């Protein structure tokens, strides 16, 4: 799936396709709130097997009644190649490794206080996340993220000018406040980048 397909999916260009992906992902996450991941995987596998076995038996009975020789109903899918191309696996594993290394370097920089301002911001984020963690569990946050990922792009697309206006106002206010705080607190002036 390339970037254009992901954007089309998130912007609901094909409502049926997006609805299926969003609905299936939301159903999976909601199922995980009730059952363990092992149970959910087992139930999904059993449901899929039930559908395919019933369809295969149904097609076999139809072929016997109509005396036709259509063959296996899933023949086209059984003949398709499902192996992952080695170059694609290497490409994405290299990208993941580069991201991981960059993240480790950034965390080292933050935890070892290379820049005091960034480390204080990071500490503030961690402090806020302790409150978020006490209010929500991981699955609830994933469900909210999924809903946000599928709803925010379309809302932004429809109301872009108003959202951009208010975001600019908030950014200006935050810059003014940060500038005032940095000017008053010794040792908090940002280094020239």
Automatic annotation (TrEMBL):
Superkingdom classification of source: Eukaryota
Biological processes annotated in GO: brain development; endoplasmic reticulum tubular network formation; neuron differentiation
Cellular compartments annotated: Endoplasmic reticulum membrane
Predominant place of localization: endoplasmic reticulum
Topology class, membrane: Multi-pass membrane protein
Pfam family, one: Reticulon
Keyword Membrane belongs to the record: yes
GO cellular component: endoplasmic reticulum membrane; neuron projection; postsynaptic density
Transmembrane segments: 20-49, 135-156
UniProt-recorded name of the protein: Reticulon
